[in-house]
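Might I ask for a little of your time on a matter of protein folding? The record follows directly beneath this note:
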Amino acid sequence: MAIAVGASASCNGPGVTTSAVTTAATGSSFAVVTGEYRAAGFSGVADITAPSDSKGNTYTKVSQVVSGSYRLTVWVATNGTGGASHTWTNHDTKSYGTLTAAEITGAATSSITDGSNTGSGSGTGPWSTASFTTANANDLLLGFCVYDYASSNSGITAVASGYTLKHDTPTSDDICSAISSKVVSATGAQTTSFTSSTASIGLVSLVAFKQAAATGATGSAALTDSADTLASSGTVSVSGSAGLTDSSDVLIAAGSVAVTGSAALGDSADALVSSGNVAVTAAASLTDAGDTLAGASTVSITGAGALTDALDSLTAAGAVAVSGAVALVDGSDDLTASGSVSVMGSASLQDSGDSLTASAGGGNFAAAALTDSSDSLAAAGAVIIAAAMAVTDSPDSLSASGLVAITGQAVLTDAGDTLAAAGGTPSATITGSAVLVDAADSLVASGILSTTGPSVIVSAEFPAELRAVDFAGEVRSLQFLPEVRTVEFEA
């Protein structure tokens, strides 16, 4: 999983224990900020005993700042133990104290920090840290603040841009503590700040925490038995092929999945899933019912993409790009993207109910063939097909809310087939001929419809329809009767 803040808890007062929360049983780290007040200051005063928790974790000091009568210390337990009823205890023995703890999930399991800095201020703030530069991308930045109480204190009212206030402990009879967080995607200079509702004294610290390293396999990754799993809280990188060859095998990553060789999902319900990108530089083959290849961002396949059994699915929340052919060869196979779909080879939907869909952007294809009843190729943007387009079974559909452009022939060969475009100028462009050969076939555009080839040819047996709302500057609808076989258009 990606690095993030999990459960949090706090307490105010010396020797006090937080309320109980539930944390992950294993794999999490824990950050704790403690605050102290000493009227005489901290000259010659040793650190307080490190905080403790109910799970027996050991805490190490990673940051500290002192200003007058106030001291802030940040403590960390790396790769600790968690679970239900997790509490933390503040071991300050003087009159005033505060503690706030936060769980960190998806963090590195050793050498967890990636730099820190501190600061302090007065008034309502903002109280800011000095800057430091991180060395790792995808760090979690945690801002820690200890501030004095006031009779009308309602807590922290603002944190630095990009940060989220995760926990605050405003009180009118003790010093208070707060934590804010931000996840970055690149290295760079980092700072943070806190602003209070009332004038006070504020101490702040910013600590960067590293995300867990990627899972990598320099050779092949083979999951050869039922329910095998390859999982990572970061990226998964396989420099050879990835083979999932038995039912319910899973390759999953919270980051991206990169497979330099082929990706083969060879048995029912196998899954290759990523919350980031999926990149396969050879072929992607889903060969049994219910196999899934999914990316929350883009899916990129340099070779062919083959979905060969019912209910196979290739899905991306972003773009889908396949530089080879795409074949959906069994009923209800699905290739879907909320971004664009780009297929440099042919797109073939060969069985009833197959679907290739893009909800944004458009579709770019070489040849496109819809060869069985109810097959569908649809895009919210343009559909561009560089070769011929064949819609061969009733009622197959090619539709786009934007432009439809076909540089080869458009052939609708069975009753009820449809090629439709909602807009664009021109909205339907066919470089070759458009052939409508069966009853109720239609080629429809709400904008201009143009063919740069010689003709539109209509069935001799049944009337078929060619419509354009705005055709050559005029609104017209043309109904071709059996005796009207060909209409010529200027190139």
The two ends are 56 Å apart (CA to CA). The chain has two domains: 4-209, 215-488.
